[in-house]
Amino acid sequence: MEATPEDYLVNQQIKDFVFDLHDASRRSHIAEDLKRLYNLEFKDLSDKYCDKAPWPSAPAVSSQCIGNDGQPDAYFLCVYKELVYRHMFAKLKTSLDDKLNAWNNYCELFEFVLASEDASLELTAQWVFDVLHEFVYQFQSFCQFRCQNAGRNSEERMKLEAAGDAWAAPTVLRYLARLRGCAPTGGMAAKAQARSPLHFYYATFASVCLSRAECLLGDYEASVQALDGIDVFDEASEVSRIFGCRLNMLYHLGYALMMLRRYRDALRTFDPVLAQLARAAKHGGFKAFPDENQVQKSYDRMLALYACCLALAPGHVVDDGVMYGIRDKYGDKYRMLERNDQPTFEAMLAYASPKHIVPSIPDYNQPLNASKDAFHQQLRLFNGEVAFHARVAELRSYLKLYSSIGIEKLAGFHDEDVAAFRARLVGAKAKMRQADYRKVGAELSTPQTAPDLHFYVDGDLIRVDEPPKNASHDTFFTHEMLKYDTFVAKALTLKPKPPADPRAAASKSEDRD
Amino acid sequence: MDIAASPPSQARPAELDTLLSSPDQYTPEAIAPLEAYVAAQVQNKQYDAAANKALAKLYQFTPSRCQDAVLAQVLAKALCARPAGDGYNLLYIVPEALIERSPLCKRLAEADALLEASKFDEFWKSARAEPSFESTCPGFEGQMRRGLLDLLSETFQAVPLDLLSTVLGCDAAQAAALAKAGGGPLAPSSGASASFKPNAQNQQRKEVVEKTVALTSLLKLYDPEEQIFEAAPATAE
């Protein structure tokens, strides 16, 4: 094939790398090679040659990726360009043109993936996750960029208006939804059914990234629903094996559940991963995890959200390590949270929330800065909820002390008159009830409501019920029986030493006589 | 006084079903059919939370297409669905600017907060100010009252008539008539209070003592190799 003029400017090592990458992903499909090339070599070459400048453009390396038909492999070049843009956005300054070109590249790439003919390109799971993760991240940053209209020069304004639909929320969501639907999600059985492992990865990680995107837009129900079909607690699944993905997914899921006022579910979501991170934090930090800084940040934020949920739904059994972590980092703040101090809640939430976005395309002629609006809106709504909870928490603390108490007496404690207090009781029980969905997902089939305090009003008396004690002795006894069985089995394998023969001893002593 | 007999049903037409389960639900073209569906819901006294939320999302993406009247209807319907969280789910999504610019929508958003805080007097006053919530969404008051009665029946075994009239937003005579007649969660009663039918929530809970053991936990102890019973010794010759 003819060498293009740009060819001569490209470093030989980079050329070899691109050739190897193309070969591994298109033809040989050797997973080890792909992993090595993507995880290690790309980073090395970036640091060596592309520290201050972007990687060579696609036309420059197109001679290295010739497909079966003798022409440069357009699909692979899209993948390559995505790598280049990702590197650019992470390390270098990008212009508006770069952002718009990146958008066009994503559209092309996803159209290739969704088209049914081409199923021979393979990438690693980590790669696919990184592509989609970056996609949502660029969407988020473009929305914020788009809304900062104050002080924009007219040239940029014209370009943005000409760009029209680039990075429009409906299109972004549409791609994620279509990718999610391109293969069944689930466990290994689903992987076997998919068109190719690549499509399975795209579908699975598109679910995770769709969940994140919906969370940023404020639609928390959809965020939880997007993870339908993925078992978020399964540590062996594809999503959990990539630690960054697992962390991201659980953070957004827990946050969405908290905003939906499902505090128990949020706590249960955070439990396993926070327990793991708390153990690591105690024993010297997160060096064992990839991307230490990101893990530290996520850990801090999840701990803050966990503390807020705990204050709003007490009665959850907390892992020791996590409790230690909370007291270590947020000791004072947690005490304030327990007392329903509103400003502390606001501060914690402002720190721990993701950066919500305003998805609509603004009027570029208006010099307004609307990027923080969505974030403030969410905060304000949640703070209202905290205020309602404070009123109920007071009630709960009194009710815990009594098995029955007259309404006037309790009204007196609250400095309210009886009629107003009775009205307050109306909504209180519903507020205290925390639906405890067994399965975290959209299948809200049989929620088991689990108030930790059950009360009802009989005439002028409030009667409080103790929660039913479920004395299950069977677990204790079966556990002890099993222990005994293993002990007996071990004892039977021991060979007893034969006792010293008394006759031998006697004959010995006789001999000496 | 009008009290709805049961929660509103949902009868989604088939095309909307396919629309809402496909990626096309995010495109602006979906706005028109969803708005028409809201009108149908209002007319037939039905409710479809998912469809209304999809419409709210589209308004979030293209605020210029937002119609205040339709938004008000969506919010009113969501309020009736309490204690389900539809109301605040919508408030998370719809940009505040859209709510602020329509006084009716603003009142509806604040009504949600009033109900949370159990401020029933103020709620009914706001609901009846012009334009009233009932005129936005016929059947609003009936549905609302139904929800509130259910809420009362969860906590109280019997409720004095003045509280009943405050919560339901009606005058004393209507409350007395309702208490006497019964219906829904109310049991017919006379006297100064309305009593509720006993249900799982307003009675003392029975203590649940587990008298069963799951077979699976016992299976761990069972070892097929083990001879639990000694074979009869061979009889000596």
Automatic annotation (TrEMBL), chain A:
Compartment list: Cytoplasm
Keywords, sorted A to Z: Cytoplasm, Initiation factor, Protein biosynthesis
Main location (coarse class): cytoplasm
Protein name: Eukaryotic translation initiation factor 3 subunit L
InterPro entries per UniProt: eIF3l (IPR019382)
Species this protein is from: Pelagomonas calceolata
GO cellular component, one term: eukaryotic 48S preinitiation complex
A Pfam family reported for this protein in Swiss-Prot or TrEMBL: Paf67
One GO biological process term: formation of cytoplasmic translation initiation complex
Automatic annotation (TrEMBL), chain B:
GO biological process, one term: regulation of translational initiation
InterPro entries on file: ARM-type_fold (IPR016024), CSN8_PSD8_EIF3K (IPR033464), eIF3k (IPR009374), Transl_init_fac_sub12_N_euk (IPR016020), WH-like_DNA-bd_sf (IPR036388)
Single Gene Ontology MF annotation: translation initiation factor activity
CSN8/PSMD8/EIF3K domain: residues covered: 68-184
GO cellular component terms, semicolon-separated: eukaryotic translation initiation factor 3 complex
PANTHER family named in the record: EUKARYOTIC TRANSLATION INITIATION FACTOR 3 SUBUNIT 11, EUKARYOTIC TRANSLATION INITIATION FACTOR 3 SUBUNIT K
Protein name, per record: CSN8/PSMD8/EIF3K domain-containing protein
Native species: Pelagomonas calceolata
Lineage: Eukaryota, Sar, Stramenopiles, Ochrophyta, Pelagophyceae
